[in-house]
Recover the amino acids of this structure.
């Protein structure tokens, strides 16, 4: 796909001759909270963003790559994703932490 043609845009995660890394959405399950949704370059990058937002006191139970929106809690997480950009690096759930990746 030629991104120089008007109206054409690069797709996230595609290699267009530059060194950009593929982003992956992750779900981090933690003790005592619903969890955290983060899009990052790697699991290590996701954990770094998590620590910037929540510190190291939170006990992480698991870190999983989200393959489909159906992998998320349909009763709590999905209804609260309004306006969230889970294709962009950063925290998209819970709301209020979007500034961490900036």
């Amino acid at each position: 796909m030629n991104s120089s043609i008007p109206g054409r845009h690069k797709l996230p995660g595609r290699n267009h001759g530059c060194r950009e890394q593929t982003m992956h959405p992750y779900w981090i399950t933690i003790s005592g909270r619903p969890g955290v949704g983060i899009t990052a370059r790697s699991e290590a990058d996701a954990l770094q963003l998590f620590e910037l937002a929540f510190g190291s006191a939170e006990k992480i139970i698991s870190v999983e790559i989200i393959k489909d929106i159906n992998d998320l809690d349909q009763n709590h997480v999905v209804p609260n994703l309004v306006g969230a950009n889970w294709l962009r690096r950063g925290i998209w759930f819970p709301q209020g932490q979007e500034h961490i990746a900036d």
